[in-house]
Design goal:
This protein has about 210 residues and is of the alpha/beta class. The protein is about 60% helix and about 10% strand. It is extended.
């Protein structure tokens, strides 16, 4: 099955040209987003990725319709490839079923990795300069909205750690670190208040 993905940056922009091309190519189904391609948070992109199956081909007018940066493009391609789905981009003449198409993607991956390495180097240089001037204070801890409420539900057994991390929009490892800190802070508070029984309960919880 050929599945078309169409994207324009806003509701005011017209998708007719891309849709006409998809019809000429004979795609079986189309997914259309009216929003920026700055990230992967697009409802129809997600629906398309969920919909396609092994042996399907995703068709786009150009690579920029699929993603506007190399990292997102490679992430999308990795997901599709893992599902056994090929991709065709008409403008760039990329077809992942062909050796040249796969080569183009590998080149893009190498460029993306080089860009990330340059960014890390520049960050390290900037931090070193700031430290030498005594002005580097490190990254401020990110305050998570509703953390205490989610942490309370977790410690009362209402939700799992995976569910808590998902509710807060953070990685599982980040959640693990933050909940450990939260539990220790709670124990210190209980110690100061002299609540021995509650403190023992928290000691048991820390062992989980």
């Amino acid at each position: 099955m050929q599945v078309g993905y169409v994207r324009v940056s806003s509701l005011s922009q017209n998708t007719e040209r891309q849709e006409a091309m998809m019809n000429i190519l004979g795609v079986d189904k189309m997914f259309i987003d009216h929003m920026s391609g700055k990230d992967m948070e697009r409802p129809e992109l997600k629906n398309m990725i969920d919909y396609v199956r092994e042996g399907d081909t995703v068709v786009v007018e150009s690579i920029s319709r699929l993603a506007r940066n190399t990292k997102d493009l490679l992430d999308i391609m990795e997901i599709l490839t893992s599902k056994g789905v090929e991709v065709i981009s008409k403008k760039e003449a990329i077809d992942t079923k062909t050796p040249s198409g796969r080569f183009m993607l590998s080149v893009m991956g190498a460029i993306a990795e080089m860009e990330r390495e340059y960014i890390r180097e520049r960050q390290a240089e900037g931090i070193a300069i700031a430290k030498s001037k005594g002005v580097y204070k490190g990254r401020k801890p990110k305050k998570l909205k509703d953390f205490e409420s989610v942490a309370s539900d977790y410690m009362n057994g209402k939700i799992t750690g995976v569910q808590a991390a998902r509710l807060l929009g953070i990685a599982r490892s980040t959640w693990s670190n933050k909940i450990k800190e939260y539990k220790k802070d709670w124990i210190n508070k209980l110690e100061n208040e002299g609540s021995v029984d509650a403190m023992q309960g928290m000691d048991e919880m820390l062992k989980l």
